[in-house]
Amino acid sequence: MSLETFLITLEAFGVVAFALSGVIEAARKHFDLVGVVMVAAITAFGGGTLRDVLLDRRPFFWVEQEFWVWALIAVAFALPFFFRARHLKLTEKAMLIPDAFGLGIFAAGGTHIALSTGASPLISVIMGVITAVIGGVLRDVLVNEVPRAFHDHQPYAVLAFTGGWVVVLLSYLGTPKSFDVLAGAVLIIVLRLLAVRFGWELRRWNFL
Amino acid sequence: MSLETFLITLEAFGVVAFALSGVIEAARKHFDLVGVVMVAAITAFGGGTLRDVLLDRRPFFWVEQEFWVWALIAVAFALPFFFRARHLKLTEKAMLIPDAFGLGIFAAGGTHIALSTGASPLISVIMGVITAVIGGVLRDVLVNEVPRAFHDHQPYAVLAFTGGWVVVLLSYLGTPKSFDVLAGAVLIIVLRLLAVRFGWELRRWNFL
Amino acid sequence: MSLETFLITLEAFGVVAFALSGVIEAARKHFDLVGVVMVAAITAFGGGTLRDVLLDRRPFFWVEQEFWVWALIAVAFALPFFFRARHLKLTEKAMLIPDAFGLGIFAAGGTHIALSTGASPLISVIMGVITAVIGGVLRDVLVNEVPRAFHDHQPYAVLAFTGGWVVVLLSYLGTPKSFDVLAGAVLIIVLRLLAVRFGWELRRWNFL
Fold first, then answer.
1. pLDDT per residue as tens digits for the range A158-169
2. Is the minimum CB–CB distance between C206 and chain A shorter than 8 Å?
3. How far is CA A82 from the centre of its chain?
4. Burial level of C156, CB count in 10 A (0-12/13-18/19+)?
5. Domain parsing of chain A, residue ranges
6. Fewer CB within 10 Å, N- or C-terminus of chain C?
7. Cα-Cα-Cα-Cα dihedral of B125, B131, B135, B138, to 10°?
8. Closest CA of chain B from A63, distance in Å
């Protein structure tokens, strides 16, 4: 598999994962079906689109890979009925699992994409964080909640930041690019799932 | 009237309609006069500007047609006093009428603009939806409400989507472009006004 | 000091001022440390980045002047501990002082930047307002509040608008560009601080 095919496949997984988190969150808030599709789409494509606008990179992923837009629309329509048929509870925790996959894939992939446009390490890592975090922030703003990424006191954006630096460091070692991205993504996903599972918290601080 | 003049005139109507909906919404929330002007401007120009950024299309409508910015500022300042003088109630329903006109005009016009830049049918229809829906979503986020487009269980974005496909289909039939856009816009506006009038609802679903 | 150095130094002050306002606001809402850094960054860079996207101007300030990103991260991490050590209260009023400096600097600087890309006076002034106001609006949306700029009934955006016109008028008089920007910025800052200090209000109006 070529590097490009690998990256597109990986980004597609990230899109699906974030779309799933958007579906669950919008469904929990009793949005209508169209609202569910739109929140899913904005969660899935928001971060990558902002990254591409900032890097002045066209065409967008979802313009070039139109198939995934159709897939997303189909999945977002089908999912609620699937959940219902299986009597699955849409808890907040259920949302956090696909969200962790989206976080890792988009942070590592976004960092790699920025690096390959010649951006500096710091800017590339920030672009990775933007790719990974903005979709979820938009999702939370749209359902009228304070963005979880900012105030849940659990490691989230900080993991995207860390994983991005791993991708940068590996890019200097001459390992295959697809390995760099995969390693960064897996590291972030594993740490995030552990953080959710064991309730890891960032150092609390209070001064009011 | 040339096609270009027609489209600019139509877009201007859409701008005024959305601005009006922004004025009403901001006034209902007791924003100050400057806030009313800014919410009106963001509602009116937000969707089209995002569309143009995504399509990498410059200059923006409001940069090229500066007259409309002046008009919007004047109208937004004058309107509250007009309403007051006439003892008009600014109900939520009053806001939905200009909003329907903005929805139809921007969805059909946005789809046509994207098509004419060579975008695929699906992407063009999505650009139409973005043009039509994002202004209202920003308006609702700015007044700290859950976007109506996503959770009021009434047909809204889905009408923009449908009308966009009508514009795409007509574009294959060789009808004059201005007819395509007008037909799509009128269809959306009529359906939306009927939906508001008779309380049409999307299929409800609930699984929590 | 060359004009360019002067403008970069001034913009850096604006970035720090807005970042400070973001830190205070996020801390008041009990965001975690990462959330504080991200809200500070979005408040500081949001307005200028949107201006540059709209003007199609690259590279962004924070891409070109990477030092300031590092500075911002360091400051945002250090500040809460500084405040705590000094037993400083983070009141809403404390936030308004750096916010006033950011407002003035970004409005005057943004207007000048837009003018120098050949934009018309009105568009330049609007770009100044966008530069100055959007960062704070994003900050308020992210902490789930109605944007202060729109509903606190105090002069804010209107000062950015006024100061922008001062920059435009001075640009016709042949005064040095750095004087134009500085005069506009100081005027806005002084008026805003006076407005906060003496509780100046925009004309109230109510019609519901």
1. 999 999 999 999
2. no
3. 23
4. buried
5. 3-198
6. N
7. 60
8. 7
